[in-house]
Design a protein that fits this description.
Elements lengths: L1 E5 L8 E5 L64 E2 L6 H9 L31 E2 L32 H13 L6 E6 L3 H28 L11 H12 E5 L1 H4 L4 E9 L9 H17 L1 H10 L4 E2 L8 E3 L1 H26 L7 H30 L2 H10 L1 H4 L4 H23 L2 E9 L6 H13 L8 E7 L1 H9 L11 H8 L2 E4 L5 H11 L3 H18 L9 H22 L13 H21 L9 H13 L1 H15 L4 H4 L4 H7 L1 H6 L5 H4 L5 H11 L4 H8 L7 H24 L10
Length: 753
């Protein structure tokens, strides 16, 4: 028997009860019921009464140091480390014991002592007053994952597993969609808080890495060849193929599912002092790609490489010999050999030493052929020593090129070479490559420099064949006024929302923080520097013992929702393609808007299924697709209707409005919207034909208030800052109407009483 710790769902204090020895098992996302048995064999988890903990009890953070009342520390079993930890942190020797022998004794690991002030020095996920699981065993973004340290003990009961937070669901659905979205794509990652943007980006990156590892393992199980790497012995093979072979994109290559994401973080604040901020974006891209694959392969590609061509049939041959290159090389070597032979004969043969003309011919032939080879080697050496980043910096610092028309074309050429090199490495590594550019801190830069970054994304890096994914992490309420102050808005009626919509091809607005996400942020806020270091060490141990933890796979609830989402996505796209369906009549004529809708529908459907827990939703795929079209065509009117519905839901008549239609809600408050048309003029200009809006909601798709509340949580293509602005204007209008009443109240002077 040893101590077992679990968390009560309703009380913050932690309880530790004595239970049977358990191992680590595969767990579900759902919290098990108290007093019941889990799906596997083992003892039941006893109920834990809620209530305050005595300050002198062993469960209190103020209790004096001492051993555990049960006589056992939260030790580690031979099957692997337990998920239960005491508030104290293990020492490095204890962690080394985990990685080495799989178990430690009490002298090497953590002890159970705690003292005053310990509540502020706990590991992530620990709350004051008890034992709790360490976040070293949490998956990407803080989501739980199976323990990688061994198989569960026979007869062990499953440990309770926390459900994913709302932010985990949003970020995972986005990462799944980005694995299937055509590139290049610019994702507008909209959230109001800068710190929350960083944490959400970390979750998205972790989920994409997990998806990458799972796809890699699935391809190996299918019997596909193992991917190659341009490092070690693979470097020699890469150089040989670069010099003498031309890559071919075959049908088999297009069927490959494995991906490799190259993550690049670009903080605009670091380049805020530069005159050309957009150049920092391009140089950061070139530098990280060169660093990822190595400088030598990219240098050889500049001189000898070629862009892959598409196969003419269903041939699986991925490499074709460069006949012309080989003939030229052999010709130069042959001429060089002949010239050297003539020169040696003229110098060494006794009867021909006096013929000066023969020496001249031999030296000339050898020099011409050898100089061609030397020039090629020098070109490779030059590209090896002078990187693309240095070339672009030299161009931007030169006054001679900055004012010429060919300045931007030279930088575009460098980017095109980089794109061709990525296409070559896709065929070489036997997997698809995606470069993920995470652009942050734009709201800390001057307006003109912010516009320069958007121009760089639009003009330099938006090649139709570029494998780029831009994650533009911004707050629209800050960026839109910033863009409207620049000169790039000419011709767009100084509308920053319109400019942002043209630059972003996949809007992703994060709603306000949910309850579970808020609790997780509170736990992260009390972390200290030592807690963060301990988390890194413990996570490294988990990766060492679990082989990286990337192939653990998704839990059943994720798999069920993902499998059902595929059918829903096909059904929604069928409705868009069906000319007889009335939904197709509301699609915009602009191709960029159509792409935004097509990119948004998969995320909306995945969110709808995941939030329902994998169960069948009341809404159909057609209804969800219609809601995406509604949010894209009429963002202002829909935001106004949802804000009025939200304000009414905060009053006493909320149940009465659940059966009303959205069109009736809009008609009820249309006069108020007309009164605010001046401050909301730029947002109103984003809407399409108002008569089509009436036909959409009143006749073809009569969404109700209850359906709107259900769909609001999965609406990612609607800027939530617009609703916040509308809510503020409505609140100020109500204060203005209440002001005359307050003026009529007069105070009676004290002397007149």
């Amino acid at each position: 028997m040893r101590q077992r710790c679990h968390r009560d769902a309703t009380a913050m204090p932690q309880r530790c009860d004595s239970g049977a020895t358990t191992g680590v098992t595969e767990q579900s996302w759902h919290r098990p019921q108290r007093g019941g048995r889990g799906p596997g064999p083992g003892p039941a988890v006893p109920d834990v009464p809620a209530g305050p903990v005595s300050p002198l009890s062993p469960l209190s953070p103020l209790s004096p140091p001492g051993p555990d009342p049960g006589g056992n520390c939260c030790a580690l079993t031979q099957a692997g480390p337990s998920r239960n930890f005491c508030p104290g942190r293990p020492s490095l020797a204890g962690i080394a014991g985990i990685a080495g022998a799989g178990a430690i004794n009490p002298g090497q690991g953590s002890c159970c002592s705690s003292g005053p002030g310990l509540a502020l020095e706990m590991s992530p996920g620990l709350s004051p007053g008890g034992c709790e699981e360490s976040e070293a065993w949490l998956g990407p973004g803080g989501s739980p994952r199976p323990c990688p340290h061994g198989a569960p003990a026979e007869g062990a009961a499953p440990e309770p597993r926390e459900p994913p937070t709302e932010d985990d669901i949003y970020c995972r659905c986005l990462s799944r969609t980005l694995c299937h979205t055509a590139t290049p794509v610019t994702v507008g990652f909209y959230a109001p808080c800068g710190h929350r943007l960083d944490s959400l980006l970390a979750k998205v990156t972790a989920f994409m890495r997990e998806e990458m590892a799972q796809r890699e393992a699935a391809e190996l199980r299918r019997g596909q060849r193992k991917p190659r790497s341009p490092h070690g012995w693979g470097l020699l093979e890469a150089l040989w193929l670069l010099a003498f072979y031309e890559p071919v994109v075959t049908e088999g290559h297009l069927r490959r599912k494995n991906l490799e994401f190259i993550f690049i973080r670009f903080s605009a604040w670091e380049f805020a002092g530069c005159d050309k901020l957009w150049a920092g974006l391009v140089t950061t891209l070139c530098h990280h790609v060169r660093q990822h694959f190595g400088a030598l392969p990219l240098s050889v590609f500049h001189v000898l490489g070629s862009r892959p061509r598409f196969a003419s049939g269903f041939s699986q041959r991925e490499w074709i010999l460069k006949t012309g290159t080989c003939l030229r090389l052999w010709g130069l070597l042959l001429v060089l050999g002949v010239g050297v032979a003539i020169l040696l004969v003229a110098l060494l043969v006794p009867g021909i030493k006096d013929h000066h003309a023969l020496k001249v011919v031999g030296s000339a032939v050898a020099s011409l052929s050898g100089s061609s080879l030397v020039l090629g080697a020098l070109s490779i050496l030059k590209n090896f020593l002078v990187s693309e980043k240095k070339k672009i910096e030299r161009l931007t610092n030169s006054d001679r090129f900055a004012g010429q028309l060919g300045f931007m074309s030279k930088i575009r050429e460098e980017v095109e070479v980089l794109v061709d090199y990525l296409a070559f490495m896709e065929v070489f590594e036997r997997r698809r490559l995606r470069v993920v550019m995470e652009i942050t801190s734009l709201d800390l830069c001057y307006p003109e420099k912010v516009a320069g970054v958007f121009n760089a994304m639009a003009t330099l890096l938006s090649d139709a064949n570029a494998p780029f994914i831009f994650l533009l992490a911004v707050d629209p309420s800050v960026i839109v006024p910033c863009l409207e102050q620049t000169g790039c808005m000419k011709g767009l009626a100084d509308n920053g929302y319109l400019y942002l919509n043209r630059a972003v091809t996949l809007p992703f607005s994060i709603p306000e923080m949910g309850a579970r996400s808020r609790l997780r942020s509170v736990a992260a806020a009390i972390q200290t520097r030592e807690d963060l270091m301990y988390r890194i060490i413990a996570d490294n141990v988990a990766k060492t013992r679990g082989g990286g933890g990337g192939g653990s796979g998704a839990v059943p609830s994720w798999k069920e929702a993902d499998s059902e989402a595929v059918a829903w996505i096909h059904e929604a796209f069928r409705c868009l393609h069906d000319g007889s369906d009335v939904l197709s009549r509301y699609l915009p004529e602009n191709g960029a808007n159509v792409r935004r809708i097509v990119n948004t529908i998969p995320i909306t459907l995945r969110l709808l299924l995941h939030r329902a827990g994998g169960a069948a939703s009341e809404l159909s795929p057609r209804a969800a697709a219609a809601w995406v079209v509604l949010a894209d065509r009429w963002p202002c009117r829909l935001s106004w209707t949802l804000q009025c519905l939200e304000d009414a839901g905060q009053g006493r008549a909320a149940p009465e409005r659940s059966g009303k239609s959205l069109w009736s809600v809009f008609l009820e408050h249309a006069g108020e919207l007309s009164a605010l048309r001046q401050p909301l003029g730029k947002v109103l200009s984003l809407d399409a034909d108002p008569e089509l809006f009436q036909a959409f909601l009143a006749r073809d798709f009569p969404f109700g208030a209850g359906e709107a509340r259900q769909l609001l949580g999965v609406t990612v293509n609607l800027d939530h800052s617009i609703r916040q602005q509308m809510g503020l204007l409505r609140a100020m209008a109500r204060l203005g109407r209440a002001a005359p009443v307050s003026r009529g109240v007069q105070c009676v002077p004290h002397g007149a009483r």
